[in-house]
Amino acid sequence: MFGFGKDDTHSLTMNQPHPDSLLDTGVQGVISKPLDRVDGPKKVTGTATYAAEYAIENLAHGVLVSATTGHAKIKSIDADAVKAIPGVIDVITDYATFLRNPQQGGETGAPTQGVKQVDYFGEIIAIVVAESFEVARDAAKRLKVEYEPLDGTFDYEANRDKAEPAPDGLIKGHYDQGDFDQAFENAPVKIDVTYTTPSQNSAAMEPHASIAVWEDGALTLYGAYQMPTSDAQQLAKSLGVSSSKVRIIARYIGGGFGSKLGIAPESVAAAIAAKRLDRPVKAVMLRQQVFDATVRRSNTEQRMRLGAEAGGRIVALGQESLTSNLPGEAYFEPVGIGTHFLYAGENRRINHDIVPMNWLLSGSMRAPGEAVGMIGMECAMDELAEAIGMDPIALRKVNDPEQDPELKVPYSSRQLTRSLEEGAKHFGWDQRQAPGQRREGDWLIGMGVAAACRSNQLQQSAAKVELHPNGTATVSSAMTDIGTGSYTIMAQIAAEILGLPVERVTMALGDTNDPPAAGSGGSWGAASAGSAVYLAAERVREKLAKAMGVEADGLTLKDGMAIGDNRSVPIGELVGDKPLSAIGEIKPGAQEKQYSQAGYGAHFAEVGVNVVTGEVRVRRMLGVFAAGRVLNAKTARSQCLGGMTFGIGTALTEDLIHDPRTGKLVNHDLAEYHVPVNADVPQLEVHFLDERDIHANPIHAKGIGELGISGAAPAVVNAIYNATGVRVREMPVTLDKLLDHLPAL
Questions:
Q1: Cα separation, 495 vs 30, whole angstroms
Q2: Which of 45, 396, 575, 667 stands the most exposed, by the fewest C-beta atoms within 10 Å?
């Protein structure tokens, strides 16, 4: 994956803290500033090219065909009948090669392939290729498939007792510490409740799309993928070719939220068709196919048991979860991932079991684990606070540990208590009343709070920086920008270190011909690829110092000028005839084991609940976050706004419904799957706490994209309880779950 190129490589493994950062001493003054996105003009003018928009000559159009049964063997496909339709080029039913389901992000092993047996409704079983999209779509609809039905597992409630222990994955499937049973039994105050969340879909704006072009035995795929480096390896293995023969280009991606971490069926189908036809083929998933055949977030059932002393100190902490996935799949939604390090409690049980279901693949969706697992944890904390007669913020502060309660190592940085205190002050938490006591006409008003946490990860990544004789720079990496601001923050990092205005830095991202990167996922993108840019720019800066005849720490770079030894020289004059270049490479090291690394924060929500209709309206919402250095105040705030909006959807509207007879998704489009719209979202307020994490990476930043959703939903749910006195434990909190319990008119 790495060892890219022959350029000078500056590699750093995070085995030691990195207290000194050039981003602290740079004088260009662009880092952390709320600069507009450098890619913004292209996006608003429609000149940013997305996967389905590349102008390729002699392009054929493919439309995928979905299975119309939940579990069966394919007996026959009548391809000849649709091949006779004018304009149809071919119908390809390559059972051995088609993806059974999408890959998880980062996996580089052989994908699960072969679809002679349908394992879930909507599974992709063929591709029809035609001279136009319209003809291909019509032929795909007419394609007749004969099935031999098999017994399937479609009804979750009827099969939940068949759950199997989850294997160790992102976290341990089963974890016990101390004597949980005894501690819970002896606790003076106990909570034993169950919260449920439904399946969810990432609902990214851009559908999955691929254009496959073969030339001289090598494949170039223009795709909508978050992690091109590992995706190219997945695609190569699925096609049985060397990874050196596969190039993925993903310059712009219209959202992913985890659904585009690994390759999906359209990429393999387009590649197979293009090779067979010896011409480029484009395959774009229909919106319904995106829902039916990519990935979902698993539904969860979370039994929460908290035992505490009268003063609030937790002595027993239990979160036991049921999730679901296709039979044979090892992935499970890591519901308790944040529970492991969020609160103190010496006796702990955090277990995960999987119910095998003939439903579409369960995979990573924005903040896997925390986004839904913190609903159970933070709502149970709210219930525990009420049982003790304690303020919910005070309860959380009492259980804010000094070190990781399981790993017994210090936190690299942790500002949970300060986030709660700052948020309470800004939000007006002291105005909160007892449940059901505040009323404005037909509306009951309530406030809720929840902690935010998201584990921090550093992934091996590389980037190249070139400084040109004209005083401009180019930054290139296989890193991607899925709408998160990668183009902008990496330009800011390079500009700050090289002393250049941002507009003199050109970014080239999303191409596997450039240095490999972990890509966008797990909130590691900015810190990982950003650190690689930092290291490459640092090496180029050292070369400039040498060219000027000064020590690196005696060189000042600002506004395109190099200043040192009482001289001021345009940077371009020091470059010479050829660009100065370097590759930076960051690797995780001992610091991630010696310190518990995570971002922290607090969510506050105020809701109104109509006593006549049961309608819930989020009136205002505030988040306070500490995630290391904020690289761009505007793009970071945007990420938190998106996460908080995600939380509103989780709490109030999003519910992916499976037909218990076939496993078919009933609401598989954006008309029926209800993501929050503008009317559902009030003005959201975001505050950042100043922080540097010297144990995380040389730029001292931590992931922020998923921190904003972690804890957002339970803040809304807790506010609903405070407004009404009605505790709803089944997500989403729709009006039918409230109406019968509201006070009489």
A1: 7
A2: 45
Residue 185 is a catalytic residue: no
Strand partners, 583: 9, 464
Q: Is 136 exposed, middle or buried (0-12, 13-18, 19+ CB in 10 A)?
A: buried
Distance (Å) of CA 380 to CA 254, 294, 338, 339, 714:
36, 32, 14, 12, 10
Task: Give residues with Cβ within 8 angstroms of 698, minimum separation 6.
Answer: 12, 18, 21, 531, 534, 535, 586
Residue 110 to residue 308: CA distance in whole angstroms: 47
Burial of 244 per CB tally in 10 Å (0-12, 13-18, 19+): exposed
Q: Are 337 and 373 in contact (CB under 8 A)?
A: yes
Total H helices, total E strands in the chain = 19, 29
Q: Is the dihedral of CA 382, 385, 391, 393 positive or negative?
A: negative
Total residues belonging to the chain: 745
How do residues 94-104 score in pLDDT, each as one tens digit?
Answer: 767 787 778 88
Angle at 570 between CA 565 and CA 573, to 5 degrees: 100
208-242 pLDDT tens trace: 999 999 999 999 999 999 999 999 999 999 999 99
Please count the other Cβ atoms lying within 10 Å of the Cβ belonging to residue 34. Answer: 12
> Is residue 107 very low, low, confident or very high in pLDDT (cuts 50, 70, 90)?
confident
What is the structure's pLDDT at 6?
Answer: 52
Task: Read off the pTM.
Answer: 0.97
From 538, 615, 706, 730, the catalytic residue? 706
User: What b/e sequence results for 708-727 when a residue is b if at least 16 CB atoms lie within 10 Å of its CB, and e otherwise?
Assistant: bbbbbbbbbbbbbbbbbbbb
Calculate ∠ Cα 519-520-526, nearest 5°: 90
Residue whose C-alpha is closest to residue 722's, from 495, 319, 446, 318 = 446
Amino acid at 34: P
Other beta carbons within 10 angstroms of residue 555's beta carbon come to 20
Based on C-alpha coordinates, what's the Rg of the chain? 27
Looking up tokens 């004088």, which residue turns up?
27
Q: Which of 500, 501, 518 is nearest to 509 (CA)?
A: 518
Note the pLDDT tens digit of each residue in 48-87.
999 999 999 999 999 999 999 999 999 999 999 999 999 9
Q: Are strands 281-284 and 209-215 parallel, antiparallel or unpaired?
A: antiparallel
How do 300-308 and 189-197 pair as beta strands? antiparallel
